[in-house]
Amino acid sequence: MTLWLTRILPSASSPEAHRDLSGNAQGLRLHQRLLQMFPDGVEGPARVAFGVLFRAEETPRGPQILLQSQVKPDPSRLPDTYGSIETRSLESLLSSLCKGTVVHYRCVANPVRKPGATSREAYKLPPVVALSGNAAVEWWERQATAAGLEPLHIDAQPLAKVSGYKPSKNRTAKQLVQHSRTQFDGTARVLDADLLREKIAAGIGRGKAHGCGMLTVAPMQQRS
Question: CB-side exposure of 92: number of CA atoms within 13 Å?
Fold first, then answer.
């Protein structure tokens, strides 16, 4: 399986790009926009069919959108003035990963826990509880370990929430939900390269359809 990474530098003069990146509906708008770059008419959720993960982030040059997919996207399906777009294969990077490699990582994730029925009843908790602070860091440590990584350094930065729709069989009764987000940056040692490749392809945690869960890594000498 080949993974593709597409970097989009939105144009400051593009009203579509400005709208897509604005407010807590960013996740919904980008989800809809980026799926336009893939063929129509697939069975089931298009995001799953094409292995789409994405995140928007700020850089010294301004905002950028990173899109990962299992099918090479077609940039011509975006508005003409949306921004500059570059796509490259991740095959070389992924094949270079091996046990012991130290990497820089980044993941914007939705750290949560699901209390058991007894705890929910006793403390009047919702089915899903957003985590922050040390609890979010501990959540990431567990996720990183499950992804074949040994965290060496963790920097956790809370981000604004994004909105999304909860999946439902009844398309006329969609439930709007909000995803709390934390950006995890740091260094880690690869313990299981095959597992890490699987997790990079699949994403981590909840909210993947709305800009959460995309894990990117780079060997330390290739930091970008």
Answer: 4
Place of tokens 């069989």: 169
What's 82's DSSP letter?
S
Residues in contact with 62: Cβ distance below 8 Å, sequence separation at least 6, in sequence order: 9, 10, 12
Helix (H) or strand (E) holding 182: strand 175-190
> Do residues 96 and 32 lie in contact, with contact meaning Cβ atoms separated by under 8 Å?
no
Rg (CA), the chain: 18
Listed in sequence order, the residues at least 6 apart from 206 whose beta carbon sits closer than 8 Å to its beta carbon are 110, 112, 128, 179, 212, 213
Give residue-wise pLDDT tens across range 95-148.
999 999 999 999 999 999 976 776 566 656 677 888 999 999 999 999 999 999
201 and 3 Cβ atoms separated by less than 8 Å? yes
Among 177, 152, 173, 175, residue whose Cα is nearest residue 164: 177
Query: Six-digit token pair at 116?
Result: 């058991």
pLDDT of residue 125: 61
Q: Which helix (H) or strand (E) is 17 found in, with range?
A: helix 15-21
| pLDDT at residue 171, rounded to an integer | 57
3-state class of 141 per DSSP? helix
Residue appearing with tokens 């593009």: 14
- Written as one letter, the residue type at 81 is T
Interval 57-73: pLDDT, tens: 999 889 999 999 999 99
